[in-house]
Amino acid sequence: MLRIDVITLFPEVIEAGVGYSIVGRACAWGLVQIRAIQLRDFAEGKHKKTDDEPYGGGAGLVMKPEPIFKAVEFCLQSAPDAADQRKARIILLEPQGRLYTQSTAQELAQQEHLVLICGHYEGVDARVREHLATDVVSIGDYVLTGGELPALILIDSVVRLLPGAIHSPESLAQDSYADGLLGYPQYTRPEQFRGMRVPSVLLSGNHGAIARWRRKEQLRLTRSLRPDLFAKACLSQEDLQLLRELQTHDTERQSGL
Length: 257
Ligand code: ADE
Known about the structure:
five-stranded parallel sheet; 11 helices; single chain
């Protein structure tokens, strides 16, 4: 069973975020154990300070290293033995981290123990990044007020990949990004809604034609919306054929045929 510990000043945010839907069910079914650890419990002194002024001056406060190291050590102690402790991934969530992707989620879903550290204020003492974290992860090129929402995003994306977490695991293979392309468009009843029709191929019952149409849509959407992903995608001979068909179709449309 995967264990996820989240070190945070706001455990209630994590607890509220993991109580519902697929993640909530995965916890109830024992596929994952998620603990929110209050960082302040590991702070010293009467005021239990978890932040302080930056050396060298400057605006804002920096999160102190000692409570974070102690909280991580507490989380590791719950591992069955020293080898398991060494296997734990200690993930600092910060905007300066490596960009989080579906392939990172797939990799983390194979692990046994994740310890997530939620940063706050102007940042975290750099010794946490340099000497404690095994990974530093950013969920995108924007700055949030803290690492709690990024931690919940990471948890959600990892837990849904755990065996047994979702009813139809075949659908995971159809996810956007699962094979480096965006997902294909989905439709459900009614067949016609306010004059907008479902593409007729999806009603044809021809499974081969449906699979080809879906793949072609994945290629078309990824090429137009995410050229960065498209440039990196591994394409099969069949994909290249579908792209040629798209090209022909586009040329015909442009010339009004
Ligand atoms: N903390 C603040 N902003 C963040 C981001 N973009 N990713 C991860 N952690 C963060």
